[in-house]
Amino acid sequence: MKKLKKLSSPEIFLRSGKTAGSFRSSRSVIDKLRAAALIFAFILFLHAAVFIFPASAADSGIVTPGTLPDNLIVTVKVPASTPAGDKIYIAGGHETMGDWKATGAELIKISEYTYRFGARLEKDYEIEFKFTRGDFSKVEKDAKGHEIPNRKLFFNFEAGENKIDCAVEAWADINADGSSAGPKPPEITGDYEFIKKFKSKILGNERDIIVLLPPSYKDKTSGSGETSETEATEVKAKTGEKKLKRYPVLYMHDGNNLFDPNTSFQGVDWGVDEACAKLYKQSAINEMIVIAVYNGPDRIGEYTPFKDPKHEGGDGEKYLQFLIDELMPHVNSKYRTLTDAKNTAIGGSSLGGLISLYAGAKRSDKFSKVIVMSPSIWWADGKIIDYVTSAKLDAAKTRIWVDMGGAEGEEGLSFTRKFNIAFKQKYPGFKNYIYKEFPDAPHNETAWRARIELPLRYMFTRNK
């Protein structure tokens, strides 16, 4: 599989203006007038140039439609039920398609219900994409309103021009017959509860939380099960009531992507609920409570513990405080949890993997199990590497899972490998550390869904 070329961020192509030096006071009035005339003429030239040579996307470092002759052309027909005033976008895993932003690249309307996207690529790529109407709540669906896998294309640079024809059958909010699709009920396996609009004073915002409960949670006849010393005082000894079972807890980021395809990015969820149900049935893992914390508009800021010179961010410490000081107390008061670090895990992918790694290193007194999938180690030039290797992790009490896909780009893979080498050098006797690479795995929910069972088994293997 071809590795994706990582295009530079547009920010680095912004010109840094320098203040022009002032005219020397010794110049004569005539010289000053001449200079002023030259400046005025130059300004007129610049204004004319705007119309003669309109700014192109090449100025931002990205080759997009109209910059050069397109060698990739995607044509799509949309259903007649598509609102006439709506714009059509292509969202995909390439910068010309917006790196999976719902408004990645606007398509050009070439006829009624037919749109075109063109771009010029300069090497071979394998790209996944979908069509939207500007939001993933308006992403394309099949004729029955079901999720569809990401579209895939392999662009062959040597072929010269690649033409792809597509057709959208329906939209997430509009059925194929034109009727309103309406909100879909959650497609979550097992018992679950919603914590709607959970407010955070630390972050100054609110978000939804999904609590996935284990099969035996509502069984009032269940025994004590897993027990920790910190829970001993909570036994209802005075009434003689049988102590109900308490459970380990797994906190996961990007909660809207974990269980339900209707709320998940790109319409594909991790299947954490299904993986847990399967592993419970096999008696492969201990039952747990999964706390799925939705992301929000400031996902980048909240999931990054350090500021990046190009992308900023850096509010990860506040997000960690929110988890520990606001969400945890609420969860522990409402649900039968085991509250000690031994029974508390944290996990996520991409930037969610980055903040999980930071949390495990910074607050090992709260989290002893850390699931780090496809982490953005590259953030802030890999600063997390020095941070983790400078921490004093207890190898006997901490378990860490780190993995990476081989098709996630050279930069991401390179930084993650650097982390793995540095970690093993710093902690040569760290037995509870796993690092795995999956050669053909890309950076998306489909890939994480395919392997989520592995870290769950590693962290919560049932004692037999």
What profile does the largest beta sheet have?
Answer: 8 strands, mixed
Order of helices and strands: HEEEEEEEEEEEEEHEHHEHEHEHEHH
Radius of gyration: 27 Å
Large-scale geometry: globular
Strand content: 15-25%
List low-pLDDT spans: 1-33, 48-67, 223-241
Helix/strand-derived category reads alpha/beta
Proportion of residues in helical segments: 10-25%
| Count of individual beta strands | 18
Domain unit count: 2
Which CATH class of the largest domain is shown? Alpha Beta
Q: The CATH topology of the largest domain, please?
A: Rossmann fold
Tally the helices.
9
Output the CATH homologous superfamily of the largest domain: Alpha/Beta hydrolase fold, catalytic domain
Q: Order of strands across the widest beta sheet?
A: 11-12-14-13-15-16-17-18
Protein traits:
464 residues; alpha/beta; Immunoglobulin-like; Rossmann fold; 2 domains; four-stranded mixed β-sheet; 9 helices; 18 strands; globular; disordered N terminus
Concise overview:
By secondary structure, the chain is α/β, with parallel strands linked by helices.
Summarize the structure in words:
It is a single chain. By secondary structure, the protein is of the alpha/beta class. It has 2 domains: 1-12 and 28-182, Immunoglobulin-like; 191-460, Rossmann fold, CATH 3.40.50.1820. 23% of the residues lie in helices and 21% in strands. The chain contains 9 helices and 18 strands. The protein has helices spanning 29-52, 272-281, 299-302, 316-334, 351-362, 383-390, 410-426, 445-451, 453-460, and strands at residues 72-77, 89-92, 105-106, 108-111, 114-119, 125-132, 140-141, 151-155, 162-167, 170-171, 191-200, 205-213, 249-252, 289-293, 344-349, 369-373, 399-405, 433-438. An 8-stranded mixed sheet has the order 11-12-14-13-15-16-17-18, sandwiched between helices. Strands 4-5-1-9 form a 4-stranded mixed sheet, with no helix packed on it.
